[in-house]
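Hey all, quick one. A colleague (J.T.) asked me to put the 2-acetamido-2-deoxy-beta-D-glucopyranose job into the tracker so the inputs and the C-alpha cells live in one place instead of scattered across chat threads. No bug as far as I know, just bookkeeping. Sequence used:
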Amino acid sequence: MAGLLKLNVFLFFVLTGFFTTGLFYLAYTYTSTSHRYKERGFCLIVPKEHQENSLLQSPHGLSYNQPSVVGPDGKVVPLTPWLAPVVWEGTFDPTLIDSIYKQQNITIATTVFALGKYTQFLKDFLESAEQNYFVGLRVHYYVFTDHPEQVPAVKLSEEHHLTVLTVPSSNRWQEITLSRMARLEELIESRLVNEADYVFSLDVDTKFYGRWGAETLGRLVGVIHPGYYQTPREQYPYERRPESQAFIPSDEGDYYYGGAVIGGLVKDVHEIAKTCREQLDIDASKSIEAAWQEESHLNKYFLYNKPSKVLSPEYLWQDFKPHTDEVKIIRFSQVIKNYAAVRPNP
Ligand SMILES: *[C@@H]1O[C@H](CO)[C@@H](O)[C@H](O)[C@H]1NC(C)=O
C-alpha cells in the first residue's frame, strides 16, 4: 500500500515536470517567434542604411582602365565596370519594365528651362514627349520661363500635368545655364519632395524620336554624350584647370556625360544640384567658369559618385550627327539651332 502511494507521488512529480517543461518550451518558442517578427520589422527600417551603402562613391586618383562603350567586336557594352546597366535597345523589355513601375504608382517630375528665345523649342519638345516619354506613367512637367505667355498649349495625356514657373530674364546664356542647378535645388526642396518620386532635368532644345520609358528610372542616372563615346578620356572636354572645382586629371574619367539629361530619385538629384551649385558658386567667387559650365561640374560629380544607371547615346543624340551602326534607335536628340538666333549674347 505504502509502495503504491510512493509510485503515485513519483508519477505525479514526473507528469508535473513534463507539463511545466512543456509550458516553458511553448513560452520560449512564442517569445523567440515574436522576436523574429520584431527583427523583421526592424529590417524594414534598415533601407536608409542600405541606401547609404548603395551610394557608389569612388576615391579620387584611383587608377583603372577607361571603360569602353563599344567592344572590339563592334557590339555595345551593356554594363559599366561598377556593374550598373548601360541602357541600350535590346537590353530590356518595354512592356515588362513599364508594367513593373506602373504598379508602384510613381510620379516622374520633369524640369525644362525655356528662357528668352528658347521658348520656341517648347512646342516640339512637349508634343514629341507626349508621343514617347513615359507614356502611361504619371509625369509632371515644370517649365521654367521668363515668358509664361509663350508656353504653348499642348494637349497632354491624362496622366501628364504641366506647371509653368516664372523666373526673371537674364542677359547671358552662361548665367542661365549656371542658375539651373540652383533652381532645380530650390524646386526639389519646395515641391518635389512631396510631389514626385523621380526627377529628370532635360534640355528644351531637343525632341523625342523614340520611346523613353521606365527603363531609364534609377537612383542616379546619367547619359553618355553622343560626341565622345569613342574618345580617349584624356581628350574629353572635362575642365582641366586645377583651380576650378570641376577639375578632372587627364588620367581619370569613365564616360563624358551630357549635361542635357540628369535623372534619379528626388533625394539623389537634390544632392547633385546642391553639390554642383556649391561648386559653381566657389568657381564664380574666383571668377572661373568651367569649360562647359554645369556639364563640367556634373561630369566631376558622376566621376566620384557613380550613376546607378547609365543611358546610352540612344537617349541623347544630336540631329546634325550622322547615324552610326551601334546606335540602332535615336530616342532623344538635340535639334539643330542657330546659336546667334537663340542666345541673348555670343
Ligand atoms: C497614386 O498616386 C497619386 C498621386 O500621388 C495619388 O493621388 C493616388 O491616390 C495614388 N493611388 C494609389 C492607388 O495609391
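Adding what we noticed when we looked at it: Helices lie at 2-45, 47-53, 94-103, 122-132, 173-195, 266-285, 293-304, 339-342. Residues 281 and 287 are 10 Å apart (CA to CA).
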